[in-house]
């Protein structure tokens, strides 16, 4: 519609024949200054307006965010001190405990289940909890809701065990990666660092040849 009005504004004879009111003529005079290059007309604008007016339903997708879960916020690196590890990181104190002696929460997230363990700095397993132990069965074990609920239960047990400051080590690409970390945050655990230790194959097996039909 905007482009059609701009086309009408380019023809002076059509303005004289159609436009009688002085206010409309002045409006067309102002429109003649505007070109189509100055107007950004794409579908993105309509999508933004539609998303503001419509109610956004969260948690329907299998790998989407659930209620109470948010995306990580951006951090201003200039305002953060000791954001990245250095040579002094293993000896830095967190609540009176050196970084190298902190307890570690291992999260193994698979498409079928989410397994979480609490170990000491030597690797000795102290607590273990999974989405299946939480009571979820079959395909529900692999959802982000099951991972968050299992993380809340394990976080409560960790606090009862007497551990408050932990490190997190994540492995796997299942849907319970972010939601399990969110569950530990909801329980009030002081998370010092998050390490992604997902295994990557640099020499994967040869794929099957394309099927002939």
Automatic annotation (TrEMBL):
Protein's name according to its UniProt entry: 30S ribosomal protein S11, chloroplastic
Keywords for this protein: Ribonucleoprotein, Ribosomal protein
Domain of life, per lineage: Eukaryota
GO molecular function terms noted in the UniProt entry: structural constituent of ribosome
Provenance organism: Atta cephalotes
Family of the protein in this entry: Belongs to the universal ribosomal protein uS11 family.
GO BP annotations, alphabetical order: translation
InterPro entries for the chain: Ribosomal_uS11, Ribosomal_uS11_sf
One GO location term (cellular component): ribonucleoprotein complex
Pfam family, one: Ribosomal_S11
């Amino acid at each position: 519609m905007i482009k059609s009005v701009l086309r009408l504004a380019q023809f002076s004879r059509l303005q004289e024949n159609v436009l009688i009111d002085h206010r409309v003529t002045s409006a067309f005079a102002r429109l003649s200054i505007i070109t189509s290059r100055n107007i950004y007309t794409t579908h993105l604008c309509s999508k933004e307006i539609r998303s503001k007016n419509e109610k956004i339903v969260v948690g329907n997708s299998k790998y989407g965010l659930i209620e109470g879960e948010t995306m990580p916020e951006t951090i201003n690196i200039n305002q953060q001190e000791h954001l990245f590890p250095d040579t002094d990181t293993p000896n830095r104190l967190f609540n009176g405990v050196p970084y190298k002696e902190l307890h570690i929460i291992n999260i193994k997230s698979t498409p079928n289940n989410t397994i979480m363990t609490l170990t000491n700095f030597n690797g000795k397993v102290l607590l273990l909890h999974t989405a299946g132990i939480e009571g979820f069965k079959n395909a529900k074990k692999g959802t982000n809701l099951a991972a968050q609920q299992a993380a809340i239960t394990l976080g409560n047990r960790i606090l009862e065990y007497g551990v408050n400051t932990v490190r997190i080590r994540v492995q796997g690409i299942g849907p319970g990666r972010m939601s399990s970390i969110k569950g530990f945050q909801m329980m009030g655990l002081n998370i010092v660092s998050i390490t992604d230790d997902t295994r990557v194959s640099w020499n994967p097996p040869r794929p099957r040849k394309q099927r002939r039909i």
